[in-house]
């Protein structure tokens, strides 16, 4: 049978649409599952103290995520330099100081430069806490002229609240593309990672870039580098969690609608799955992760363990009610299942058993959650909740 190109395209589109709608969005169809034990080591030892957690179980879980999901993130480089390429003390109509910083990292005589955008409020009398956004939506989203004001990056609202806001385009470290992701630090600085089944890929590279931003903040007297708030949406939210789990300089880690392989429990098989995400975006994860496509129950980890790695620092999980692809309930359940790690530090478990109602923010010590109305995006409403949580968290530190 002969099939012309148009017919072939339409059939392919039909099969794709059918596959997407074949994903489970029915809570009654979520089967039974058993999560890996958070506080039991691979050798069967029960963890009951912070010392055991820090020395045994936490490193063990971190390594499991490195080897099976995100890949290792190299820490070594030969040199790092910061150059302020733009300095405007009267940005946003005089409310802020804008710095554009070229962060250049050198390893084995090769260099990569990441451009960091930083706004700090001029009214501040002391170094300010800093929101750091892992941005995969392009530079226009963070328009320094502020002619384009995108709710995804609510800079004015953050500044008015007394915080700094910053961000970098992930294209500078690893482009968000199946082929071009190698451009940047993977080919230039860490080519050996591309040969490893547990080597760093896109999400890890973006987190690596966020760590280099903190390196700069530690040298900027206008920023309180002990109060860095990592923010990421969707794929950026996945990277934010992995970054926050690894880099203990992050005070608050925010995941906005990060879904599968982010904050949502993989074993629920609700919305996006490991099979779907590793097929569509294999370059986000280490090659080993593809082995668990359709075999979530064989994973040695699940996402509650990623959230637990952030303890005793703060974590915020945000969802949207219409974003079933990202599984809002699975994200909330992961947060509640992470509580035992926080309890080791004397942090009270206070998240309600049932997921909060739409547009109802729940704040517990070191943990927060909301599920706003609407679709997959990061909006001014989300930013308002992030600011409210940061205000409460930093006020009691």
TrEMBL record:
InterPro entries according to UniProt: AB_hydrolase_fold (IPR029058), GCE-like_dom (IPR054579)
SUPFAM superfamilies the UniProt entry points to: alpha/beta-Hydrolases (SSF53474)
Signal sequence, start to end: 1-22
MF terms in GO: carboxylic ester hydrolase activity
Pfam families for the chain: GCE_fung
4-O-methyl-glucuronoyl methylesterase-like domain segment(s): 103-345
Keywords attached to this entry: Hydrolase, Serine esterase, Signal
Superkingdom of source: Bacteria
Name by which UniProt lists this protein: 4-O-methyl-glucuronoyl methylesterase-like domain-containing protein
Species assigned in the record: Mariniphaga anaerophila
């Amino acid at each position: 049978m002969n099939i012309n190109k148009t017919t072939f395209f339409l059939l392919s589109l039909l099969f794709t649409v059918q596959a997407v709608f074949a994903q489970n969005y029915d809570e009654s169809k979520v089967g039974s599952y058993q999560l890996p034990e958070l506080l039991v080591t691979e050798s069967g030892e029960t963890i009951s103290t912070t010392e055991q957690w820090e020395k045994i179980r936490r490193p063990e879980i971190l390594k499991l995520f490195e080897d099976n999901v995100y890949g290792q993130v190299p820490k070594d480089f030969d040199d790092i330099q910061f150059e302020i390429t733009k300095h405007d003390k009267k940005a946003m109509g005089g409310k802020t100081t804008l710095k554009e910083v070229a962060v250049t990292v050198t390893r084995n005589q090769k260099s990569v430069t990441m451009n960091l955008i930083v706004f700090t409020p001029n009214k501040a009398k002391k170094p300010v806490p800093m929101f750091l956004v892992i941005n995969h939506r392009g530079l226009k989203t963070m328009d320094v002229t502020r002619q384009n004001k995108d709710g995804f990056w609510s800079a004015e609202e953050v500044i008015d609240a007394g915080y700094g806001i910053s961000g970098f385009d992930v294209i500078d470290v690893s482009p968000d593309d199946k082929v071009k992701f190698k451009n940047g630090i993977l080919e230039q600085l860490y080519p050996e990672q591309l040969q490893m089944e547990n080597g760093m890929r896109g999400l890890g590279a973006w987190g690596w870039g966020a760590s280099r931003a903190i390196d700069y903040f530690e040298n900027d007297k206008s920023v309180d580098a002990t109060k860095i708030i990592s923010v990421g949406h969707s794929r950026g939210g996945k990277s934010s969690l992995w970054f926050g789990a690894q880099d203990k300089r992050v005070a608050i880690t925010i995941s906005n609608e990060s879904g599968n392989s982010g904050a949502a429990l993989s074993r629920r098989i609700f919305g996006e799955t490991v099979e779907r995400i590793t097929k569509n975006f294999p370059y986000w994860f280490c090659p080993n992760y593809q082995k668990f496509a359709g075999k979530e129950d064989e994973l040695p980890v699940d996402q509650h363990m990623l959230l637990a790695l952030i303890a005793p620092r703060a974590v915020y999980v945000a969802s949207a009610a219409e974003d079933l692809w990202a599984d809002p309930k699975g994200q909330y359940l992961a947060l509640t299942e992470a509580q035992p790690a926080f309890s080791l530090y004397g942090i009270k478990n206070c998240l309600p058993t049932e997921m909060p109602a739409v547009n109802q923010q729940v704040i517990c010590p070191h943990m927060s959650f909301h599920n706003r109305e609407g679709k997959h995006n990061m909006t001014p409403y989300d930013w308002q909740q992030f600011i409210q949580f940061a205000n409460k968290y930093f006020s009691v530190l």
